[in-house]
Amino acid sequence: MEIETIKDKYELSDSDRAYLEKYVRYMLEIPEVEIEEEKKLLERSVGSDEESQARLVEIYMKKTIHVALAEINKGASLKQLVEYGNIGVILGVERILDVGTAHTTIMNHMKQYMKLCL
Questions:
Q1: What pLDDT is stored for residue 1 in this prediction?
Q2: Can you tell me the distance from the alpha carbon of 51 to that of 45, in angstroms, rounded to the nearest whole number?
Q3: What does each C-alpha distance from 97 to 42, 53, 85, 109 come to in angstroms?
Q4: What is the pLDDT at residue 10?
Q5: Residues 69, 88, 73, CA angle at the centre, nearest 5°?
Q6: In angstroms, rounded to a whole number, what is the distance separating the alpha carbons of residues 82 and 67?
Q7: How far apart are CA 56 and CA 42, in angstroms?
Q8: At 112, is the secondary structure helix, strand, or coil?
Q9: What is the rounded CA–CA span in Å between residue 80 and residue 102?
Q10: Which of 42, 73, 48 is nearest to 60 (CA)?
Q11: Cα–Cα distance for residue pair 52/45, rounded to 1 Å
Q12: Do residues 118 and 62 touch, judged by C-beta distance below 8 A?
């Protein structure tokens, strides 16, 4: 995730730029996940494995920034969008019913919660 590219692509306030840098730095500390590992985490999350759910939250928090940037300048700060989106991620992970719909469930919750602050 290139911070400078993102900053140039979007019209961000100074506070949004500062938040973006801080958030991206934090997200870079979270290890990447291979597809097979993510599938295993999803399978275990369906069974309410808390460790797997926590790891999935981390994985999807990385995706939150991209979705939030698409909603920027619609009435909420980047920080608000990310915070609400991350709440949606947590709730989405808790509500996974099966592996086949897990990604959609998590992403839908993320987007729904972001819309609450718009």
A1: 53
A2: 8
A3: 10, 13, 20, 13
A4: 82
A5: 25
A6: 8
A7: 8
A8: helix
A9: 24
A10: 42
A11: 6
A12: no
Which amino acid is it at 5?
T
Structure tokens that stand for 74 in this block: 């619609």
Number of residues that this document lists for the chain: 118
Give CA–CA dist 44/55, Å, rounded: 11
CA 30, distance to chain mean position in Å, is 12
Each of the 118 residues of the chain gets a pLDDT tens digit; together they read 566 677 677 888 899 999 999 999 999 999 999 999 999 999 999 988 999 999 999 999 999 999 999 999 899 999 999 999 999 999 999 999 899 999 999 999 999 999 999 8
For the record, the structure tokens of 96 come out as 């996974």
Q: Which residue has the tokens 């597809």?
A: 35
Three-class secondary structure assignment of 20-45: HHHHHHHHHCCCCCCHHHHHHHHHHH
What does the block give as tokens for 43? 């399978």
Q: What is the pTM of this model?
A: 0.89
Q: Tokens representing 61? A: 């928090």
Distances (CA, A) of 79 to 12, 23, 85, 105, 111: 11, 9, 10, 22, 14
